[in-house]
Write a structure and sequence with these properties.
Chain lengths: ~325, ~325
C-alpha cells in the first residue's frame, strides 16, 4: 500500500499530543491525552501506543499507510539509538522508546529532542520556510534551541547539540537547574523571570505585582506593559540576557534567520525590539546584517507539527 | 598534465608563508616573505603572487601540475566570492584576492578565514585526524575558531561562523577591539592576559613581573609557573573564562573533540587542567563525557599547513 501519511507525537510532561498528517504537513486528525507521568515508564509508553492507534482511527487510516512516526521529547536523548537518557519531568531513564513502537506498528520511528523537532517544524512549515540555515530558540519554562544547517537538522556527536539554554553568559550568575551557574536559562527563561520577580517581592520591593496571588512571567510582562517599574526592570534585564544568548548563537552559527518561539516570545514587540538592540550592540556587522530575528509561526502547535515535520524529513 | 600538488598560502599581518605540497599533505617546498602591509593592497598582492611563483620554482614544479591554491587570511571575509571584507592588521577592504590569483595562474583558488584553515589542517593532518566533528580554537593575540561538521568545514550563511572570540561571556566585562564588551577574546586571549597584568602593575600590585621591561602573556605564564601570586591569579581567571568559552562551544556544537592551539595553548598542562575543570563544572554529562579537549598538533605551522589542507579539501 502506498505510504502517504506520517504520525507526529509530542511527548510532554503533562500531555501527549499526536497528529496524523499528509506528507505536505496537512493534518488529517489529532488526538491528545494526559501523560500521567506519575504512572511510570510503562504507563506512559502504553499511552503513547494507544494515542497512536487512536489518531490512526480518527483519521480513518491503516498502519501500512504510514511512512514514519516522529517523536519529539524532552532530553537529553540518544536519538540514534532511540533512547530517552533522562528527563526532569518524565519518569524515563535510559528508556528505549523507539524500539517498542517500531515493534508494535512496524513503522520506522524517529526520536528527537523537542526543540529540534520544533526547529524542523518551523523550517518546513513555519517562519523558516525557504531558508537553508536557521536557528530556532524556544523561551518558555526553559530555553531550548535547534539548528538547521544546509536544510538538515544539526545534531552533533551525541545528538545533544544546541543546548543554548545551558551556555554560561554570566559566570557568577544564579544557579541553574542543571547545576551550573549563570546559564542563559537561569537568567532569561519564563521561570527565571518569575523567580526574580518573586525574590524581589519577598525582599519588599514596591510593585503592582503585589496584587497577584501567583506571579509568573506572564504577570511580569503584563505589569511591565502597564508601566510598573520593577516589572519593567526585570523584563529589560532578562531580555538583555536573551539578546546576549541570541547574539552568541549568531556569532557561532552564522544563520540566515533566528526564529524565536515559546511563551515568552508571545510578548511580541518588547521582546524583539530589545533582542535586536542587543544584537546591534554585540554582533559583527556582516553577521547581524545578514540575519533576521523573527517570531515563530507555529507557536501553540510547535510540538506536534515539529514531530510531524521530523517524521517527514527523516523519511525522505 | 596530472595535477598532483597544491599550494597553501598563509597570509598574516607580518609575513606571507607559502608551501607546495603533495595531495597527502607532504610538503615539497616552502617560502616565506614579509607581508609589508604598510605598502598597501597591490603591494601585498604582488608579494603573494611572487611567493607562489617562488615556492613553485623551489619545488621544481610547473603551474599546470597544481590542482588548487588555498589561502588562509584574517577575516571577516566573503569566502564564496573570494573577497577580504576588512582586516585589522592588513590593508585590504572589500578586496578581491582570489580573482587576480586565478587570473594569473589559472588554478582554482580558495580563500578561507585563517582559523578555519587551521581547523582543516588539524582535521586532516593533526590532532583531529580520524574524527568527524571537531572544533578548533586558537588562543593567541586573538581567539579564533573553526568547526568541522561531518568531515566538512562549517561556514555558516556568510562564511563567518565560529567567531567564538567575540561571544559575550561577561556582559559588563572589558571592551573588546570589536566594540563589544565582555567578549571571550577580551578576557582570555594572550593580549587580554598581558593587558590585565600591565594594568595591575600600573596600579602598583606586588609581583615578580615588575622585573620585566615588557610584560606579555608569556612572562605572566612564566611567573605564574614560578609561583608569583599576581601572575597565578591572572592566569587562573583568564583560563576560567577560556574554559567557559570551551564549555559553551561544546554545549552548542556537541563535538567529538576540541583542539586547542595558538600560543597560549603552548603553556600546556596548566591550560588543559583548568579548562577541563571548568568543563566538568559547566557542561552536561553526556556532552563532556563524549568530548576530549586536546592540544593542537601543528601549532607552529598551523597556518600554512591549514592553507594546504584547505586546498586539498576544496579540490576533492
Amino acid at each position: 500500500m502506498e505510504k502517504r501519511y506520517v504520525i507526529g507525537v509530542d511527548l510532554g510532561g503533562t500531555k501527549i499530543s499526536t497528529a496524523l498528517a499528509e506528507l505536505n504537513g496537512n493534518i488529517i486528525s489529532e488526538y491528545t491525552i494526559p501523560t500521567n507521568a506519575a504512572g511510570g515508564e510503562q504507563e506512559v509508553l502504553g499511552r503513547i501506543l494507544s494515542a497512536i492507534e487512536k489518531v490512526l482511527a480518527l483519521g480513518d487510516k491503516k498502519v501500512d499507510e504510514i511512512k514514519s512516526i516522529g517523536i519529539g521529547s524532552p532530553g537529553p536523548l540518544d536519538s540514534k539509538k532511540g533512547i530517552i537518557l533522562e528527563t526532569p519531568n518524565l519518569p524515563f531513564e535510559n528508556f528505549h522508546l523507539v524500539k517498542p513502537i517500531e515493534e508494535r506498528f512496524k513503522i520506522p520511528t524517529y526520536l528527537e529532542n523537542d526543540a529540534n523537532a520544533a526547529a524542523i517544524g518551523e523550517f518546513m512549515f513555519g517562519a523558516g520556510k525557504n531558508t537553508k540555515n536557521m536557528v530556532y530558540i524556544t523561551v518558555s519554562t526553559g530555553i531550548g534551541a535547534g539548528a538547521i544547517v544546509d536544510g538538515r537538522i544539526y545534531r552533533g556527536n551525541t545528538c545533544n547539540a544546541l543546548e543554548l539554554g545551558h551556555t554560561t553568559i554570566l559566570p557568577e550568575g544564579p544557579r541553574c537547574n542543571c547545576g551550573n551557574y549563570g546559564c542563559l536559562e537561569a537568567l532569561a527563561s519564563g521561570t527565571a523571570i518569575a523567580r526574580i520577580a518573586n525574590e524581589k517581592l519577598k525582599a519588599g520591593a514596591e510593585s503592582s505585582l503585589k496584587s497577584y496571588e501567583v506571579v509568573t512571567s506572564y504577570e511580569v510582562f503584563e505589569e511591565a506593559r502597564k508601566g510598573d517599574k520593577l516589572s519593567s526592570d526585570i523584563i529589560d534585564k532578562s531580555l538583555e540576557y536573551l539578546g546576549i544568548g541570541v547574539s552568541n548563537i549568531i556569532t557561532i552559527m552564522d544563520p540566515e534567520i533566528v526564529v524565536l518561539g515559546g511563551g515568552v516570545s508571545l510578548a511580541g514587540e518588547i521582546v524583539f525590539d530589545k533582542v535586536n538592540k542587543v544584537i546591534n550592540k554585540r554582533c559583527f556587522k556582516v553577521l547581524r546584517e545578514n540575519c533576521r530575528v523573527v517570531p515563530a509561526a507555529l507557536v501553540k502547535q510547535s510540538g506536534v507539527i515539529g514531530a510531524v515535520a521530523l517524521a517527514i524529513m527523516e523519511s525522505q
